[in-house]
Amino acid sequence: MSDRQGGKRRILARSCEFCRIRKVRCSAQKPSCASCLKHGKECVYIHQAPKARYSHQLSPNLEDRPTRAMLDDLRAENEYLKRQIRQIKETGQLEKSDTNIEPAQTADERLKSWRDLCEERSRASTPNHSSPYLWTDEGGNVNVFGPSSALQSCIKPEEHQDPVALVYVRNGLLANAVLSRQQEHRLRLLSSLDGVPIDLAIHLLDLHWNRQHHTFLLTYRPALMRDIAQGGRFSSKFLLNAIFACASKFSCRLEVLDDPTDPSTSGGRFFKRCDELMSSGNLLLSPSLPTIVGLLLLGGTYNAKGMTTKAWLLTGAASRMVYDLGLHLNHKITLENAEEVEIYRRVFWGAFICDKLQSLYLGRPVAIRPRDAHVSHELNDIMEENEPWAPYVDPVTPSSSSQTPSIPYGPIHSVSCFQQLCLLFKIVSRIIDNFYVVGATPAEAMASLDGIDAALNKWEANLPSPIQLDPSSGASLNSRRAVPNILALHIIYNAVIILLHRPLLAEGHLNLPSGAPTASWKRCTIAARNITNIAQEYRARYSLRSAPYLISYGVYVACTIHVRNAAAVGGRDSDHSTLLTWSLRCLEELSIPNSAVSRPIIIIKKLMEAKGVAISPGDDGIDCPDMGPNDADASLPQEADVENPGFPLPLSDEYIEGGDWDWGNWNGSFNEDVLYGFMGSQSHSFGDMLPDMVGMNTDIPSDDGQHMS
C-alpha cells in the first residue's frame, strides 16, 4: 500500500500503548497484538504525527537561541561599554577600538559579529581605533547609530596607503602647485573680478595670501586661483567677495573704506555683496565648498568686528554644511582625486579650529567634536611648508611700508603649523568638555587634569624642530626670526595652558586646602609671561596691525594673570606691572584692525581698578603716533628696536616663586574676567564661578547640550 494518498502522508501507529509504555517490541497485529493477548490487556493504537527531532534541518534558527558562549560574549561587550563610559567621564574621549559594525546583518551574521568582536578584544589588550558608530549622550549613555543611519554606509575604516603611490600623489600636487603659481599673473589680464577693479582685487588677494591664509589654510591656493580665472567649482563670487571683505581691514588704501574718515567701514561694500549673494543665490540652503570657506572667513571677521550673533550663525551654518557634504569622512586618496581630498582635509580641519575658537570667544557649544572626525590632518601639498615669506609691501604706496626692516625671513612652515594647530585644538576640545561645561564637577576636573596637562607637554615636546620656540630665551627669539604663524601658534599654546590651570585657582570652589595650588599658579604665570614676550616679538618685527584676532585672545588671557600677580605683589614697580603694560600696548594695537578687542581692554582695565593695580602714567597706550587708514600695513611702533627689542624680561625669583604674596588679593572672584565666553554677555563656566556657588549642585540640565551660553 502506498503511504501517500491525496498528496498527504498517512500516519501509522507502529506500537500499541501497552508495548510503548513497556518499551518492548510490538507485533502490531489487529485487533490485539501478541503481548496484549498474553497479558490480557486491551490493545489500543493511538495515531499521531511523529515528534519533530531537533536538528539543523528542522530548526534553522537554533543558533539564534542564547547559549552560554553567546551570553559570555555579551557580558564581555557590556564590560567594554562600561569602560568606554568611564573613559569618557575621565578624559572626555572614547577609548579606541578596531571594530566597525556592518549594516543590515542577518541573525546568523549578528551572532558571528558578536563572537568575532569579543575575540578581537580578547586578543588586543588596548583597542586602537574608535568605532565611528558609538556616541555618548549628556547622560553618559553609550548609543549606536542604527542600521538606518547614513553613517553605516558612509564611514569606512582608514585604509593603508601605499607609500609608493603616496609619493606620486605628493609629487603631483607639488608640481601642480608650482605650475599654478606660474599662471597666476594671467589674472592681471582681466579688467575686474565681480566688478572690483583688477588692481584692487589683486591687492586684496595678495593680502589674504600673505597673512590671513596661513592661519587656518582654509583656501587651497592652486585650485582657487585657477578657478577664479576659469570659473571652476572651487571658486565662487561669494567666496571671492568674502576674501575681499576679510582682507580689507589689513589694507591701507582708501578705496576699501566706505567712509574715508572711518576705518571701521573697511570692506563694507564687500560685506554687503556677500549678503546679497547669500540671499539671491539661496546659498545657505545649497552647501558647497566655496560657500563653507566663505562663511568661515566671514564668521571669523565678524567676531573680530564684535558682531558676534552674525559670526555665530554663519560659522554654525558652515559647520553643518561640513557634515552635509561628508567632509568629516575618510576619503581614499588617488592620483585622480588628490586635489579634491587635499581641499576636503584643509576645509574640515579649518572649520574644526574655527568652531573651537568661537566656543572660547562666546562660551557656546562646539559643533564639531573630535570623535566625529574620521579624516586625516596630514596634508600632501607641502609647497607652503618651505616657501620663503616676507611682509607684504603695497606697490601703490611703498613709502607707507618704509619702516619695515629689511630682514631675510625663513620658510613659512604653514603645513606644520596647521597640523600642530589641529592637534592642539583637539586638546582644547577636551578642556572645554571637562572644565567649561554645565555639569562639570571638581572631582572630574581634577581627575582629567594630569592627563590633559601631559597631552599639552607631549604636544610641545613633539613639535617639529623648525617651529619650536623658547619664549623665555632672548637668543631663541632674536636668532630664529620666527615667522608670524609660528609666533601665533605658541601664543595660543600658552593661552591653552592658562585655560586649563586657571580654573583650579578660583577661590574655594575646588575645596582645596588653604593656600594657592602652587603648581597651577606657576604654570599660569610662566605661560602669561611667554605670551607677552612672543606678542612683543611679533609687534616689533611685523606690527600687530596685521595680526589674526586669535592673538588678541591670547594676550587678553595673559593680562588676567598679570593683573592678579601685580595686585598680589603690591606696588607698580614689579616685573608683573611691566608685563601688564606691554600686554596692554599689544591689545591697543590689535584693536586697530579688530574693533572687538576694545572689549577685553575694558575688562582688563576694570579688573585693574578692582584690584587696585596702576601702571605708570602714559604707559596705558602705544608710545607711537595714532594709526589711521593711511598708515602702513607693517609700520612699527616708534620705540621698537628689532635687533634688540629689550625682551624677554629677565625673571626674578619673586616672579617664579611668589614670595610673601597676598593670595586673597590674587584669586577672589573670576567672574569679571572670564576666559570661556569673554565676548558673551551671560557666559559663565566651571572655572569662573562666583565663590558663593561653591557646594551647589552644578549638574544643571540644559536643552542645548552641556554648555552654558
Provide a brief overview of the structure.
Residues 15-45 form the Zn(2)-C6 fungal-type domain. The chain has 709 residues and is an all-alpha fold.
Q: How is this structure best described in words?
A:
It holds the Pfam family Fungal_trans. One of its GO terms (molecular function) is zinc ion binding. InterPro entries: Transcr_Regulatory_Elem, XnlR_reg_dom, Zn2-C6_fun-type_DNA-bd_sf, Zn2Cys6_DnaBD. Residues 15-45 form the Zn(2)-C6 fungal-type domain. This is Zn(2)-C6 fungal-type domain-containing protein. With 709 residues, the chain is mostly helical. The chain folds into four domains: 13-52, CD2-Gal4; 67-96 and 109-154, no CATH class; 163-372, no CATH class; 410-693, no CATH class. Helices cover 48% and strands 2% of the residues. It has 23 helices and six strands. The chain has helices at 17-22, 34-39, 68-91, 107-123, 151-154, 163-183, 198-216, 221-230, 237-247, 268-280, 289-304, 308-324, 338-362, 414-435, 442-461, 474-480, 484-501, 518-541, 549-569, 575-590, 598-611, 653-657, 663-666, and strands at 4-5, 8-9, 134-136, 142-144, 192-193, 196-197. It has a two-stranded antiparallel sheet. Strands 3-4 form a two-stranded antiparallel sheet. A hairpin with a 2-residue loop joins strand 1 and strand 2. Helix 18 crosses helix 20 (575-590). The longest helix is centred in the middle third of the chain and has 25 residues, at 338-362. It is elongated and about 130 Å long. Residues 1-8, 56-65, 95-107, 121-154, 508-516, 620-647 and 681-709 have low confidence and may be disordered.
